[in-house]
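Handout, section 3.2

Students often ask what a structure token actually looks like in practice. Rather than define it abstractly, here is a full record for HTH-type transcriptional regulator MetR. The first block is the sequence as you would receive it.
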Amino acid sequence: MHLELRHLRSLRAIHEQGGLARAAEVLNLTQSALSHQIKALEEQAGIELFLRRTKPLRLSAAGMRLLRTAEQVLPLIEAAEAEFRAVEMGRAGRLHVAMECHHCFDWLLPVLDQFRRSWPEVDLDIRSSLALKALPALERGQVDMVISSDPEEIAGITFQPLFDYAPTMVVPAAHPLVAKGYAEPADLAGETLITYPMDRPRLDVFSQFLDPAGVEPARVRQVEQTAIALMLIASGRGVAVMPDWVLRAQAGNPELALLPLGPQGMFRRLFAALRSEDLQQPYMVHVLRLARTEPVRMMRALAQG
């Protein structure tokens, strides 16, 4: 027996409408075409599906069994079709984000919280790059966006600029560097450098500051949480380099001092990497807009607070 979805839909419509004429109208078929379809199905099955001598038209025992199948299968098919239509129209999709900056949680979580309210049908997930290599995962389709400050030339991948930031050194308030007013690479040679648990090339303090000068800190201590790192620094147990937007809330902290890297300061740009084919997705356009405006909102709030 060759059973098709149209057969199940026709059977359900006839049962619900109580006759061929009304069912044909619902299905946008002629009554003759619907009658021919049902007869062909009965010939295949070798059994009657309807009791034609009754009014309204009723299903036979075999027809009722097939109806139960239709009532199980059709809602699943219709739900899948609705999902496909939503994807096609840009309302649904997937946004799995990986980060190459540990501190980005503080900025990205508010962005994604706003995003989910506008795009409830988009499957949302976030992870750090500690569990995977973020850009190769983007190429393989494991994630859909990577937050990074290190753009690369990769075929099929687009790096969208988000915002600029200044890597800033945070030291105890009584540190000798406070009188100097800024930090140079050689100043870290005798320091314990507190960093996030990330690969060295992904940390600005190494890739942009210490490594080009050939300077090594006396010790490196990895800490997961920004708040814990700041407590250690306030206790005189090390120094750290963090983005200015992370440290803005500490500007009035009497136990800490913030110093630019170099007399002119250092500036970096954060990017969102995504597959070029996804760039025009409406929900991607929206999350990029939120990602660019949230840091500005955060800094304004801190300045006013």
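Discussion prompt for tutorial groups: The chain has three domains: 5-88, 94-161+272-304, 167-260. How would you have guessed this from the sequence alone?
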